[in-house]
Every structure is written in C-alpha cells, then in structure tokens.
Design a protein that fits this description.
Layout lengths: L4 E9 L1 H7 L4 H7 L5 E7 L2 E7 L5 E7 L3 E5 L5 E5 L1 E3 L2 E6 L2 E8 L2 E8 L2 E9 L2
Antiparallel strand pairs: 1-2, 1-11, 2-3, 3-4, 5-6, 7-8, 8-9, 9-10, 10-11
C-alpha cells in the first residue's frame, strides 16, 4: 500500500473521549481539538518517516521500518519503543496505552486509535 504524500486534517470522531481516556493533559487536549494537522509520509518500501506538523511550528516525527523495533513518540510527547506492522494494508502500532492503525481509503489517510474500547478516528485529505 502506498502511503507517501502530504495530508491535511479534514475531520475526526470521538476526540474528547479518547484523549481523556489516554490521560492527555487538558492544555494538550485543547491545543489538539480541531487542529489542522498536516501529516507528511515519506515511504521507501518498508521504511517510513511519518511527520505531523502542528499549527505554531511544532512537529512530531516517527521513523520506522515495518517489522523492526523503532523509537517512537506519542501525541502527548512520550517516547517509547514499538514494532510497527503491516496488516491487511494497514500500518499498525501498539502505543503505550492505545492501538493505532493507518490506512488509505478513497485517497484519504484514515487513522484509528483505540484505547479500552474508546475509538478515535481522524481523516485527512491528500494535498500533495
């Protein structure tokens, strides 16, 4: 599955319930609400650089190879190690307190994070 491209936040579902479930601080919750995040994905085979650009100039970058352990960072800034997998065309990562998947559906980047039954969905449209 080809993920390479630049994607701009289009909409989300269940943001508040999810971020409260994973314990995100209230200042980060407010900052992330309806945030026009631009996600940039560079893919070379199974090697990925996944960068999220936030308004105000803050960025988070995770670099990983499918099937190999990598140093990662959560949306709250916590660093951890994870082995990212590819399952049925979806990128799958087990974060410390949630499971994250990403896939391309109809040319859009669809990311789903699940924590203890609470599901957060973010959709981004391709802009480049």
């Amino acid at each position: 599955m080809a993920f390479a491209g630049k994607y701009e936040f289009e909409g989300d579902e269940n943001y508040d319930a999810f971020v409260m479930k994973i314990g995100l601080p209230s200042d980060k919750i407010e900052m992330g609400r309806n945030c026009k995040i631009v996600t940039e994905v560079v893919q070379n085979g199974n090697d990925f650089t996944w960068t999220q650009h936030f308004p105000g100039g803050r960025t988070t970058t995770n670099t990983f190879t499918i099937g190999k352990e990598a140093d990662m960072e959560t949306m709250g800034g916590k660093k951890f190690k994870a082995t990212v997998k590819m399952e049925d065309g979806k990128i799958v990562a087990e974060f410390p307190n949630y499971r994250h998947t990403a896939e391309i559906c109809g040319g859009k980047l669809v990311e789903i994070s699940t924590s203890s039954g609470v599901v957060y969905k973010r959709t981004s449209k391709k802009i480049a």
